[in-house]
Amino acid sequence: MDIEKALNAFAALSQSTRLDVFRLLIKAGEIGMTAGDISDTLGVRQNTMSANLSILSRADLIRSKREGRGIRYFADMDGMRGLLAFLMEDCCGGRPELCQPVINELACAC
């Protein structure tokens, strides 16, 4: 991940509702959640939620899948892994391979 993508991801997560959405979708795992379910769970109006989901999607932190007339959202684990790798790429004296077990543990292949 390059610095521009990382900054975009950090900007997306710097707002409390978007951070809550991202954490909720991580918890939902491979089942994901519909936009309506996310809105209801977090008590956020659907039009506000739609804007937040768009921002998270553009930051490559979530992905979506159309289901009939609805859309189901999922945490993008590859995007999360990329962000974690970016944060840790210079760790351990510039030897990122030493940090790889930590990255693997934090970003499970759920």
From TrEMBL:
The keyword Transcription applies. SUPFAM superfamilies: Winged helix' DNA-binding domain (SSF46785). It comes from the Bacteria. InterPro entries: ArsR-like_HTH, HTH_ArsR_DNA-bd_dom, Metal_resp_trans_reg, WH-like_DNA-bd_sf, WH_DNA-bd_sf. Keywords: DNA-binding, Transcription, Transcription regulation. One of its GO terms (molecular function) is DNA-binding transcription factor activity. The keyword Transcription regulation applies. Pfam families: HTH_20. Residues 1-95 form the HTH arsR-type domain. PANTHER family: ARSENICAL RESISTANCE OPERON REPRESSOR ARSR-RELATED. This is ArsR family transcriptional regulator. It comes from Sulfitobacter guttiformis.
